[in-house]
Design the sequence.
């Protein structure tokens, strides 16, 4: 009983009505007028009209060609596509990351970029005694991490300046590039290699190998990485580990309908 009262107490009627309006549109009723929505929801027309104007300003609904009917806007489509793309990426990546972990014995991760942060969206841990502090949902600074450099590698210098307008980048350790110019020089090398390998870049006792995952449009959709709990990787192992990470990234890229040959070159 108290749970129901709490739910009602913290409910936002305006938001609820706005979401109910969006739910009324379907393949069978792609367009609706304000009076039709008022009747369906049993609320005053003026209230429905105000909600529609608000949703229209935000892009969640738009007016049909006749100027009278309303239909779902591009913001709803964007939310749906982003959700589906994220869902498919995390689901598709898991068996690939698990196979990489099983073959090499190290934890494997998948991250995406959200502004100036990287966000872990998939992780498969190894059975070693090493315990990582990152988990799904963890955010780290893109400019100071190996996985972040992978996600930024296709940015132009002007795009980086827009993202980091400050004169000095925030340091997270001795290896953090101090300026956007320094970061850009790192990214040029990363892009030329097609992967990033760093020993102790963000954490002194961690080595990371990461490669880009491309989507159908050829954009970097994610970064796939291998976490090695060692300060240094034995030189004899480096090529083998790099090839395995790059192959896994190409495999996931192909699942996203990217041209594998384009990545390989």
Sequence:
């Amino acid at each position: 009983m108290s749970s129901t009262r709490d739910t009602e107490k913290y409910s936002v009627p305006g938001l609820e009505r706005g979401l109910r309006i969006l739910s009324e549109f379907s393949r069978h009723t792609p367009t609706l007028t304000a009076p039709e929505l008022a009747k369906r929801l049993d609320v005053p027309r003026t209230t429905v009209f105000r909600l529609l104007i608000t949703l229209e300003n935000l892009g969640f609904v738009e007016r049909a060609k006749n100027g009278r009917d309303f239909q779902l806007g591009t913001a709803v489509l964007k939310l749906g596509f982003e959700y589906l793309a994220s869902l498919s990426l995390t689901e598709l990546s898991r068996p690939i990351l698990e196979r990489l972990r099983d073959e090499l014995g190290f934890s494997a991760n998948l991250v995406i970029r959200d502004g100036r942060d990287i966000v872990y969206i998939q992780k498969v841990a190894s059975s070693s005694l090493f315990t990582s502090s990152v988990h799904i949902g963890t955010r780290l600074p893109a400019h100071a991490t190996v996985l972040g450099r992978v996600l930024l590698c296709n940015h132009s210098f002007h795009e980086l300046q827009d993202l980091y307008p400050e004169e000095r980048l925030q340091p997270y350790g001795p290896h953090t590039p101090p300026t956007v110019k320094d970061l850009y020089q790192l990214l040029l090398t990363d892009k030329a290699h097609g992967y990033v390998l760093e020993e102790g870049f963000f954490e002194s006792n961690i080595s990371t190998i990461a490669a880009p995952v491309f989507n159908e449009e050829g954009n970097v959709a994610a970064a796939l990485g291998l976490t090695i709990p060692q300060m240094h990787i034995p030189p004899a192992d480096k090529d083998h580990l790099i090839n395995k990470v790059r192959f896994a990234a190409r495999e996931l890229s192909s699942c996203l309908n990217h041209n594998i040959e384009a990545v390989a070159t």
